[in-house]
Amino acid sequence: MDLYRQLRLVRQHWWIVLLTVMVALGITALVTVRAQPRYVASVTFFVTTPSQGVTDAYQGGLFLQQRVKSYAELLTSDRLAQSVVAENPIGLTAEEVQRRVSTSTETGTVLLRASVTDTDQNRALKVTELLSAKFVELVQKVETTQDGKAGPIKIEVVSGPRVSPTPVSPQPVRNFAVGTLLGLLAGVSLAILRGLADVRLRDAAGLQRTTGSPLLGEIPFESTAKSEPLIVGDAANSARAEAVRKLRTNLRFVDVHEPARVIAVTSALQGEGKTTLSCNLAIALAEAGWRVLLVDADLRRPKVADYLGLDAGIGLTDVLVGDVQVGDVVQRWGDKSLLVLPSGSAPPNPSELLGSKAMADLLLALRESADIVIIDTAPLLAVTDGVVVAVQADGALLVSQQGRTSRTQVAAAARSLNSVSVRLLGCVLNMAKVAKAEAYQYEAYRVVTATGTPDVPADRAPSARHAERIDGPGDRTQELTRLSR
């Protein structure tokens, strides 16, 4: 995975990074507040020996550097700790004194530094003073010769003992800096892992890669789309309506040498917005002057008639079983050149009905009666109805909702179409999150007419059931005949 994708995953899951940093800072603050202040008392020793001449001084220096390492071990030994607590009761055991003592040396020197860390400032200083005195005394005993003379090594205190006036820990600034860094690293790691584990579609590029088909549209999410699904009225001037018009343009030029006149609109799962898109695409095509026929072929859960405010009692099912003629049930919508064929009665065998010869003959007749036929079909992974209809059309349009459908489900839907040689015209990412800059650009550029101007009068809003029925069987037949001229 390249760096660009990692940064994109971190950007998509920025809230994980923010939450992790806040948790890390909270833990750091809790630990810092509850931590006991610790003080350090220190003393520095200088190890020396008499020498004569430059050569003796050089050899003596090397000898002392080796001795200093041994004295550092002696400062943290059990013997020295026991001698400190034996003669001076300080409220600590020998093991506790030993744990509080640390030593350090500087390379190339004969300086030895001992430090005592304690939560009690006075006790830290007291232990350091006792440790210093007992250490000098112990070294003198060790270095004394057998005849009672002083050895060649001399220990002098050159600094201290003294204690730090302020606690050496906790250090709030350092703690919060480390906590922020650790939280940031953990957050970035979690964001990347979350992105890698997330199999849902998050962008248009992922949809295009998964389906292997061109991206024809990216419909932005709008909170008002649930109550106003159609791009009419005030919604006709929205960014969603403009995205549908772009889809209309891309769809008409997806293949100029073999244009698709019968288009099946489907999706992998239920609830991805395929029916809404079918209706809006048909409206947009009709606005451009095309003769459009919208067919509701989702016989299990039809929604086209509800969205458009039409009567769904008689429709496609009744035509296929031979009860009525198609001209008797086609309904005109609004004042546009848009005809709608509802689903009709609920059949017990929708798959067999949609795959029948009657359906093939109907699509052939409808192809001659309109410039473009839009067919709303059932989801591909739920039932086989969508594939049965798509194989009889000129091509299919696959709709996927951002953040809901997984890449595996979309790939399975595309495979189901490819397995029966359905021409996949392209894919559409529905309910997409659009950057604020793009939304602002559209709002700043769009043109609103003087009256504020919906494309359909207010009294013909979807809630007003503004279908314009064609009166009489003869008139319906004449309407289809007129449109086919």
UniProtKB/TrEMBL annotation:
Coiled coil: none annotated. The keyword Oxidoreductase does not apply. The chain crosses the membrane at residues 12-33. It catalyses: L-tyrosyl-[protein] + ATP = O-phospho-L-tyrosyl-[protein] + ADP + H(+). It is an enzyme of class 2 (transferase). Residues 261-403 form the AAA domain. Residues 465-479 have a biased composition (Basic and acidic residues). Keywords: ATP-binding, Cell inner membrane, Cell membrane, Kinase, Membrane, Nucleotide-binding, Transferase, Transmembrane, Transmembrane helix, Tyrosine-protein kinase. Residues 453-485 are annotated as: Disordered. This is non-specific protein-tyrosine kinase. It comes from Micromonospora citrea.
